[in-house]
Amino acid sequence: MSGEKGAVKTALVISAHAADFVWRCGGAIALHAQKGYAVTVVCLSFGERGESAKLWKQPGMTLDKVKTARRTEAEKAAEALGVSHLISFDLGDYPLRLTDEDKYRLVDVIRDVQPDFMLSHSQYDPYNTDHMYATQVALETRMIAQAWGHKPGEKVLGAPQLYLFEPHQTEQMGWKPDVFLDVTPVWDRKRAAIECMEGQEHLWDYYTRVAENRANHFMRNSGGQSGGRNAKYAEGFQSVFPRTVDEL
Ligand SMILES: [Zn+2]
Of 38, 48, 77, 209, which alpha carbon lies 20 to 30 A from 245's? Predict the structure, then answer.
């Protein structure tokens, strides 16, 4: 990676666990990779304790074996999606915790990538506090990366949008999408990435149905029955910051 912002557009995903980026924004990753974006994914942990139940049910399982399996799955999924850089912080999960040094490491990544947009979890998640903690960390590190007084002389961050991807039980998280992205052209890549997550096979069809339902919302909001654009698969996002526009 280079700290100098070149012609290549970039995006940064901050994922609490190794698989979250696949279910929740795999389509956005594959679509932007196809458009020529360099997409960096940071997995703060492997989800080794909290999101690997199927692996733990196997006899003789150890934490190291689970982490290795989850790392392999994440690498395969990242490859299927066209991720440019997959960075595993390996900070542990349930609970996920970052020291200030860990946060500064993430700030370094943000400044290095200089993302055009960022993606992370919903702001509230009572079922999975690692998720909402990761979003808090994303906001905090985005803020530090913008600070001229943090490592003066480095290129500071502009103001990339932070999109919050769809949580597991939408309504309970207070998550309300204001953007729908048509990911039909890259659905095959997302489904291939989903199928890399062998430890969570129970979610494969669930997240396919979510994408089908969001495609219906895409169509309704792009004109509905008065000529809405058809979409078979879509992802929803909630944006944190206002957009600045020249025309409405
Ligand atoms: Zn997770």
Answer: 38
